What we know:
Shape: rod-shaped
GO molecular function, one term: transcription cis-regulatory region binding
Helix content: 40-55%
Structural class: alpha/beta
CATH superfamily of the largest domain: Periplasmic binding protein-like II
CATH class of the largest domain: Alpha Beta
InterPro entries: LysR_HTH_N, LysR_subst-bd, WH-like_DNA-bd_sf, WH_DNA-bd_sf
Low-confidence stretches: none
Pfam family, one: LysR_substrate
Family: Belongs to the LysR transcriptional regulatory family.
Number of strands: 13
Protein name: LysR family transcriptional regulator
Largest sheet: 5 strands, mixed
CATH architecture of the largest domain: 3-Layer(aba) Sandwich
Mean pLDDT: 90
CATH topology of the largest domain: D-Maltodextrin-Binding Protein, domain 2
Amino acid sequence: MNLAEIETFLMIVETKNITKTAETLFVSQPTVSHRLKLLEEELGVSLLIRKKGYKQVELTTYGEEFVPIAERWLYLWQETQSLKEKQEKYYLTVGCTDTLNSAMMYDLYREMLDEADRMTNLRIKTHYSSEIYHYLEKHEIDIGFVHHYLHYKNILAEPLLSEEMYIIQSEQPEIEKEEIHTDELNKEREIYLSWETDYQIWHNQWITKGERPRMQVDTFELLFHLLSGKGMWAIAPSTVVERIQKLKQIHVSKIANEIRPPRRVTYKVTHKHMSEATLKAVQMLDKRMELYLKKKGWKTDK
Length: 302
């Protein structure tokens, strides 16, 4: 059976008349009869009762039973055609640290959400860097962005972004200078985020000197809200600085220490063994990310 035969049969069911069916489909009456005959021969049953002297036709018992089958056949054919016309859709689960989601990735997510074609479905999960490696290895996420390079047998880690660190103070800064040495600042007023291992070592050598930071946080939101009191300060990478500057007034200074803190490196992590669909989705995000970083003017590590 084919589309023409099914459409012809369903039109006969609707009009109950061969002539009207031919007129509606813009074909001849013999064509309608021929299509119906081929359909009946393939099914091996009679679908219509044709009475001499009557314009209307009636369905046989088989014909009545075949109506819902023909309707489902036509629906599936239409779905198949629709599938051909649709653009390929991407489904991607992304794992990021809190500050990456809130600062670096935020505008990219907004751009993708506002796209008219809606080709991409994103599921965004927030975890610590070590957790992202774990979930990626178990295929619970498709791609991750982290601050730590860890060795996993099946995980590929690629440097993506390198950022300079800055001192940021509340809108009521203790010191208003373009460059500040950390010794000039009150360490009791610092809001400390542990950006990555090398930074922790630098911070211990130059600021806490073996002591525990008085206020340590692990989310962008806490940093943002706590950086409101007079004299409060923190050290943050450029993406975080730019994001906070969009939301409120802060004072930003370069770090004048003899040894400056190491640049924060963001790594893109993927599994060595991805399905074809996941690989296409990851490649799509790679292209978007490359354009996004270039537009932002952020220094990549490529």
